[in-house]
Amino acid sequence: MLQPITTTLREVQSKLKKVLPRDAVLVGHSLDNDLRALNLIHPHVIDTSLLYRREFGQRFKLKVLAETVLKKQIQTEETKGHDPTEDAQAALELAQYFIHTGPRQVHDTQRQVHDTHTQTLDHDRYTTHTHRHWTTTGTRHTHTDTGPRQVH
């Protein structure tokens, strides 16, 4: 697949440093993985996977955040996976929303995401599900189950 590619990691790093000034703000989703793969450190990073987190530091997928916070559909069947431009735009809009709205409102939004979605976590090894029900005494009860994904 990458047979004709002759560009080295060092060349990619050099090109990135030229187009990304040291004082630029790098915005994206789960950037730690990309920066680690590129063996780069950048001083100004906004990682939306860290701005919008679940309990215990678990991260939401970009697709879920775009759908819930931005009311946008990304990574759909029509695009056949990830469109890097679409993903970058969604991450930028999520960062702008967080900055404009503030952490308190985002916390409330996260609670909505948490209450309305079953989200696969940690590379599909764990799943978290929140549900609400009425108890026999007539009170409302909410709880979250997190555990290993069941394979059937």
UniProtKB/TrEMBL annotation:
GO function term, MF aspect, one: exonuclease activity
Ranges where the record places region Disordered: 125-152
Alphabetic keyword roster: Hydrolase, Nuclease
Domain of life: Eukaryota
Coiled coil: none
Keyword 4Fe-4S: no
InterPro entries given in the database record: REXO1/3/4-like (IPR047021), RNaseH-like_sf (IPR012337), RNaseH_sf (IPR036397)
A cellular component term, taken from the record's GO annotations: nucleus
Identification of the protein by name: Exonuclease domain-containing protein
Organism: Hucho hucho (huchen)
